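In this section we walk through a basic example: taking a raw amino acid sequence and producing a predicted 3D structure, encoded as discrete structure tokens. The instruction is simple. Fold the sequence below.
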Amino acid sequence: MKNIILAVFLLINSTMLFGQQTKNSLKFNLNDSGTTYIQAIIMNQTWLRFNQSNPGTLVQNSAKDYTFDIGLRRTRLQLLAQVTDRVFLYFQFGQNNFNSLFNANGGNRKLAAFFHDAVCEYKFSKKNELKIGGGLTIANGLSRFSQPSVTTIMTMDVPVFAQSTVDQTDEFSRKLSVYARGQIWKIDYRLVLSDPFPITSSGAAAIAIAPIANFAQRGHSLQGQGLLIYQFFDHETHTTPYMTGTYLGTKKVLNVAIGGIFQKNAMWKTGNAADTIYQDMKHFAVESYLDMPINKETKSAISAYLGYFNLNYGSNYLRYNGVMNPANGTTLNATNGGITGQGAIYGNAYPMFGSGHTIYTQFGYVLPNTLLKGKGRIMPYLSATLSKFNYMNGLWTNIYNAGINYFINDHKAKVSLDWQNRPTYYSSNNEIKSGTRMNTILLQYQIFF
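The resulting token sequence is shown next.
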């Protein structure tokens, strides 16, 4: 990590000798017009969190009804280089989900940072009609939230379920891929061919093949992805494949989109005679996104999103997940009330990924800047994730969030407060039943420069 920081520091200083620094950013122009440049970006998200624990939760083998933890949700260094008018490079290095329990089950907490992105891209026209790129990249199909710009999100965190294979057959949603993306007329498109990582390299313990589908541990196939967006008003930002969360009223954006992912024989399960059955992974989504100013003088604005996701990982696939989980064990198992879905059922986890249907929506309103007399801006928001997974036998998994952002300097410096309400489940007589709903209160401070 020290070597990476030193390399970025030396690169920035070397560009100062040959280029002109732009104001309010670590960006150095390589020509007088600024069409070629090198830019470094630093980002850190610190979380302080109180969480009501799922039933049976253990923290270091001690029962905990609730937890308080401090962590780094994301810590990143980014480097962008527009080498010529046509050639673009993008690198991102950092770590995620670093709290006191990071690698608490026997790993080394000092081994955390890794490359998120390493992308080479060539632009075939002066505008953005066609860009061809490749490398380790988040360029994705399915949804805008499958490739989110985490520094500009409106809610406390992204809807992680939309990164459908996150940390299973990818590297925190990044894959080794080649892609074509661009903007023609009002159409924004991206086509991606990915070479997924095998599930056996995820770092998690292998899950034995069972009647419930899981990622196949034998065989290998490429993955095709596509996203097609119709833009009614302004074109969205197109520097990197990442898609902005909210423009805070600086653009007038209204989009509708359709996306999908397909991978042949990505999953496997056992059949009636204990034979191996392979199943395709097929995901589909439709969505609409709105982000526009209400009053340009007072800088009030609205942001809204609505998406429907039809996710098919194979027969009854289900995986629990808890973001930066503040616990690392449970007293429950399949014989005393535990749910046998994949992933940890303790701490703040809930069924996040599964075959079935999900509706996700969010809405936020940037209040007029006269409220704080120009000293920052306030944005309250609401979001809901409504899922009906096949495994859950008709029960809905509904997650509700409400929060508020205080933009000290837009997204470059902001403080966010979020409340989340989530379900718990237990098993009784081989039947899944709803338990007590739990709450999480979270404070974040983000620096992005």
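Looking at the output, two observations stand out. Confidence is low (pLDDT under 50) at residues 14-19. The two ends are 19 Å apart (CA to CA). In the next section we compare this with other chains.
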